[in-house]
Design a protein that fits this description.
Elements lengths: L1 E5 L3 E6 L4 E6 L5 H18 L3 E5 L8 H17 L4 E5 L4 H17 L1 E5 L2 H10 L3
Parallel strand pairs: 3-4, 4-5, 5-6
Antiparallel strand pairs: 1-2, 2-3
Length: 132
Amino acid sequence: MIHYLNEDFARVNYYPQNNLVEVIWHKSNTNNQYRQTITAAYNVVVKYGANKWISDMRNGGVISIDNQKWLKEEMVPKAVRSGLRRVALVVSKDIFNLFYAKNIKNTLQESFQSKYFDDVEKAYQWLLEAHI
């Protein structure tokens, strides 16, 4: 595992053996922290050619509409062009977390193989079952 970002609000890791970028949200974040984390994960995709992404959003808090728009309009297209193919999102039962997941669902499904989970292990299993 290669630690790419390790902050109190989030962590980004790369697993070369699985060609996987992992984003773990530790707590609610500011707009800048959200963008810093997503950009760091995107940089892993570019630098190492990661084609799988897991985001554990259970502790991530509310994501602003501006950041949701930025993700959809800027980062998702860039990630597709860089080779990202499969995305797993681990979400909580929190209404705001579910709203965020629902809001970006169509964008993700149009761009990648994507799936939502409430269990981290099942998310990893799904990501790794594809030999891409």
